[in-house]
Amino acid sequence: MPPGTPFNGFIHPYPIRVDEFSSPPSLTTVPALHLLSHTHSDHIVGLSSKSFASTIICSEDAKEMLLKHEVYKERALKDMELRSDGRVSRTFQHLKVSPLVIGGRTDYQGSRDLLKTLPLDKPTSIEMSETQRVTVTLLDANHCPGSVMFLVEGEQGSILHTGDFRAETWWVDYMRRNKFLEPYLATEDASIPHDEISVFQKLDAIYLDTACLFSETEVPSKHDAVTDLIRLISLFPGNTLFYINSWTWGYEDVLKGIARRFNCKIHVDSYKYNIYARLSDPTLRAIVTENPAGTRFHACERFGRCSYVAEPPSGTGQATKVVYINPVTIGKVKWAQYLEQTTDKLRGGGSVDCLLVALSRHSCLPELRNFVSMFRPRRVIPNTLDPALHGLDWKCVNRMFEGCFSPDTDDNVQLEGNPQLDESNDGDAALKNLHGEGSEELVASWAESGKSR
DNA sequence: GCGATCAGAT
DNA sequence: CACATCTGATCGC
What we know:
Number of helices: 12
Distance between the termini: 30 Å
Radius of gyration: 24 Å
Strand content: 15-25%
């Protein structure tokens, strides 16, 4: 996790660490269990260390992506065939070392397989120590391939860690029907006692993806965004080439939507192909190709695009027009305006060489509130804090999720025991230093309302 | 001298 | 545009 993660990535009170693999903060706080929600680079910090030797629980897809992970430099070398010896340098190879087979005898010395995969929606009892067990359930997180949430249940309470997730409407409805989350669903009337019968319980905490905590604007659903993008693409001449700037995992809905609508495959580089082709999503597996010739749609290496969509040599024109598709995070209103403007421009014969698609991989505040309200947990812990805010964002959380908590939540519980909270700073200095579009006012207003408690 | 970690830019 | 990624500098064993 990025710097500013509460509790150094531990989910209190369990000795379990999520998405944080750097050296433990002290010898007395050694994790008994590691969880990995997905393989984006800010969630695998410390994992490339050759000295890391603990078991990690993750999804099957995340394991595949991690073991096949190559940094850009390595991918480029491979493409230039400088690595003709077939030698590969994969960042996380040390996590799995197969046993040596010599003369029919298997030598297990030095072999290891630290990534323990669990299927989704299958509660699994995990032994952390001789005296401690927890039940861990992986749930789809709607963020990128292999991304999961963790439901951790044990004697010390039940915790849901969302990892990074996109809680759009359809997905929340889908989760509401998940039979392993069902015991934790809130009643309509918050005042009705909830855990008198032991089957109905409360989540003690939700560790929440707060990447877009200060985005109050609602964003389009992924499905709407892709549908709208496809309408724009349809307005171009039939021979137009498109480059989809899927610069990180999580834009697969765009690839799949285009492949479905235009009945074609998407050209990807061999690195992406070798991963996509092995993931559990059968549609994704089937719509990617390494052959650049047969399709108008390309999602190949960003800084080494194939000749069909390559940057033309300066001064020379390109034989066929290439239109770039860039995923962005913008709100519903702005997106509607953009769609109207761009449609008008294209219908009027204007030149457009870059398209946007309003595809967010994180949940905005309204979506977060909707998700948290579904459970009414005892507390919400932000997965990340902005170090520049010196704990101010932590203070805001309580207020931002007002009305989403269990009625037995003590207001003070939320703020207790946060080691990161900078009491010496009332936040004003942090606010002055804060940069960014409008978030300054937002944080200020939330902080102000929080103070009045 | 290497890997781990950080700052800065995209 | 954004908040994941890459690069190059710096730290530390």
